């Protein structure tokens, strides 16, 4: 029997202790060489006037946040729905408007290597999309679209 995932959102976490709070710290040196501390990990970032082409800037970090949210929820819901997979890969593309500056569209392509039937992967994708913190946040702000493909595991 497939578990039923509730669509009821609450202001409490699973333990009922209240909303989750996330904190990061960032520092930048003149010229835009920056780093962001997330938990015990540092991520280099580009905060210079012009993109340096090596370190991620805010737009790439936003795309990365969406990608990580999708992958985290693939893992989470594959366990909940007992969907077996070998690998998940995601590509994110965002379109930026110049005046006023804003992201207007984001599109992702999620590929899952699995021998599960397509309908099971589609169920997984619906849950990943519906219950993702970042996916829901971005969907409220931009035109967020996505697709999932399945590649059989050899």
Any overview of this molecule?
This protein is an alpha+beta fold and 154 residues long. The protein folds into two domains: 19-56, no CATH class; 57-151, K homology (KH) domain (GMP Synthetase, Chain A, domain 3), CATH 3.30.300. Helices cover 28% and strands 32% of the residues. The chain is built from three helices and six strands. The protein has helices at 58-80, 118-130, 133-139; strands at 24-29, 33-38, 41-46, 87-97, 102-113, 143-151. The strands form two sheets. Strands 1-2-3 form a three-stranded antiparallel sheet, with no helix packed on it. Strands 4-5-6 form a three-stranded mixed sheet. A hairpin with a 3-residue loop joins strand 1 (24-29) and strand 2. It starts with 23 loop residues before the first strand and ends with a strand.
Number of strands: 6
Strand order of the largest sheet: 1-2-3
State the order of secondary-structure elements, H for helix, E for strand.
Answer: EEEHEEHHE
Mean pLDDT reading: 89
Beta-strand fraction estimate: 25-35%
What is the H level of CATH, i.e. the homologous superfamily of the largest domain? K homology (KH) domain
The secondary structure category is alpha+beta
Overall body shape: globular
> How helix-rich are the residues, as a percent range?
25-40%
Q: Runs with pLDDT <50, length 5+? A: 1-12
Give the class-level CATH name of the largest domain: Alpha Beta
Biggest sheet statistics: 3 strands, antiparallel
